[in-house]
Request: fold
Amino acid sequence: MWFFIAYFTATVTTSLTVQQLQGSIRGPDDLPGKRVATTTGSSSATYLQQRKIQFAEYPQIEKAYQALLDNKVDAVVFDAPVLLYYASNQGKGKVEVVGNIFRREDYGIALAKNSPYRKRINEALLVLKENGTYQELYKKWFASE
Reply:
């Protein structure tokens, strides 16, 4: 069975995530010397470069997943929401998300300057967080057993 290490805070964030094979990878300090994959030009690639961790770059995350399943890599480093979704859906039973925070990155919603939708979107997001709907959606789409 393969494992991912990931983090995800209460707000929507980006995280760097690695796969663990037979318990040998528990965090970023375990990556040197392992076969690591991420996507070309991503913040994950920058993270790995800054730490001088060698890695294979793939044009799409799906290619990195396949490399993982084909045992061509030991780890996949990428955004936690994407990996959590994969682990809960297509990767269910094949991968599991585990681990701690590597680095926090925020997601945003781009709108035109002075957009009339900004206030309504912010209000809707706040309501979702306060009434528990956000957590329910998170569990539905990202929680893996």
User: Anything to note?
Assistant: Helices lie at 43-50, 61-69, 80-88, 118-130, 133-142. Residues 1-22 have pLDDT under 50 and may be disordered. The beta strands are 2-5, 13-14, 18-21, 36-39, 56-58, 75-76, 97-98, 105-106. DSSP finds five helices and eight strands in the chain.
